[in-house]
Design goal:
By secondary structure, the protein is an alpha/beta fold. It has eight helices and eight strands, in the order αβαββαβαβααβαββα. β4, α4 and β5 form a beta-alpha-beta unit.
């Protein structure tokens, strides 16, 4: 990590022999955050049935506040744009558009309003169920007021429990291909591997780090 900070290396991948909290600590202590970003977050790209989904936060923030959740959504949308994908963002919850009055659902609802105000050009909706977010026919029929009228491709989870569980179930049960975890928010490309990743997954993440490093050097 210090080599990346000092410019002796362009990017870093680590974590094969340590757990995630130990591996990420040097990155958070040494590498500065991007301007306007208060904390790092973890993103997984999931490729399933020729569709690409961006899932966050899957790795870092255990119980983000509404403000932090909005920031995670914004960072994830920016990553999707980098990959040439128009982000269609669903802020996920066990509640649909106010059907449940609970602090967890209210947090997601507030985060949705924050990002709508901050980035009005983005397609973002919530709070909403995951199946509603990915079923445009049901969405149009039952929630015609929603700005999201196509299947969401950016899925923002209310906490780390739900995000981490969801991506691992998609991978292990559904057989989705995974790229990540992509560590968002740092000024320099540092990514933390997980122990269950195979060689192809490590190569994919290394390729992303190389592209990020090249873009950073060009700036």
């Amino acid at each position: 990590t210090m080599m990346v900070e000092k410019g002796d290396a362009d990017a870093s991948l680590m974590g094969v022999t340590n757990n995630y909290p130990i591996s990420i600590k040097p990155a958070l202590e040494i590498i500065d955050m991007q301007e306007g970003v208060s904390r790092a977050a973890g993103l997984f790209m999931m490729i399933y049935k020729n569709k690409t989904y961006f899932l966050a936060d899957t790795a870092v923030n255990i119980d983000p506040t509404a403000e932090q959740l909005a920031e995670i959504a914004e960072c994830t949308a920016n990553e999707a744009i980098k990959f040439g994908v128009e982000p269609k963002i669903a802020m996920l919850s066990f509640s649909n558009f106010g059907t449940v009055d609970h602090p967890s659902a209210n947090k997601v609802r507030e985060a949705t309003e924050i990002i709508k105000e901050r980035r009005p050009e983005l397609i973002v909706e919530g709070e909403m169920h995951a199946d509603v977010a990915t079923n445009p026919e049901f969405l149009k029929e039952n929630f015609p007021f929603s700005k999201l009228q196509e299947a969401a491709n950016v899925l923002i989870f209310p906490d780390l429990n739900s995000g981490n569980i969801a991506y691992k179930m998609m991978k292990e049960i559904a057989g989705a291909d995974t790229i990540g975890p992509i560590l968002m928010g740092l000024k320099k490309p540092v990514h933390i591997l997980v122990r269950t990743q195979d060689v192809s997954e490590i190569v994919n993440l290394a390729a992303i780090a190389a592209v990020e490093a090249e873009a950073s050097n060009n700036h």
